[in-house]
Every structure is written in structure tokens, then in C-alpha cells.
Amino acid sequence: MKTILIADDDPVMVKLLEFNLKRGGYRVEICREGLSVAAKAHDVNPDLAIFDLMLPGRSGLELIVDFKSDDALKNIPIIVVTGQGKGSTRHELLEAGASTVFTKPFSPTILINRISELLNG
């Protein structure tokens, strides 16, 4: 079973993601603030990570930079979910190494399909 690490401090978003990911057959690990994400990733070795852009402690952008500079984490695909739909933010996230950026609200079905594409080629 593939593991997905969620880093989001919004309890409603976490429940939505967790429900849909588990229904899609994934194991889910959760961090509710940015400072513990890298340590959690080293512990659970996720196959994919989903970051909220605005997190307490470290932003989703900072987490992307952390992951991409860590040999053990750099190949993990990263999806960022954000309420900021600005093109410059999206571009900055993709340039930093995000695989995909979803602007809230988004379709859980489209998210699951994108995860499947990233994990299964």
C-alpha cells in the first residue's frame, strides 16, 4: 500500500483528503504544522506528499525546498494545495519542485487521478 504524507493545518481539509485517499487505497500520514514534516517523512518514507501552502512553522514552499535538498526525500512527488490562485505563486511552487499545484476548492476525483499518474507513471 502506497503512503501519502499530508501537511495541512485545516482540520476540514485534512478530513477531506484523508477520506478520499483512504477510499482510493492509500495509507495516510498527517502533519498539522510545517516544522515536523521532514522528520515525519524520514520516519514514514512516503511515496507522495501533499502540502498546504500556508502552514504554521514552515510554508509549503519552504517544505518543497527542504525535500528537494534532502537526498532521502528529493524524489518524492509533491502536490501543493493552496487558496492562492495567483499565477506567480503557482509558477514559484512548480519552479521549486512541486509536481502539481491545486487551487482550493478542487475536485477530489481529479486529485486522486493525478496522484495515480504521479505514482504509477
UniProtKB/TrEMBL annotation:
The keyword Phosphoprotein applies. The modification 4-aspartylphosphate is found at residue 52. Keywords: Phosphoprotein. The keyword Phosphoprotein applies. Residues 3-119 form the Response regulatory domain. SUPFAM superfamilies: CheY-like. GO terms for biological process: phosphorelay signal transduction system. PROSITE patterns: RESPONSE_REGULATORY (PS50110). It comes from the Bacteria. This is Response regulator.
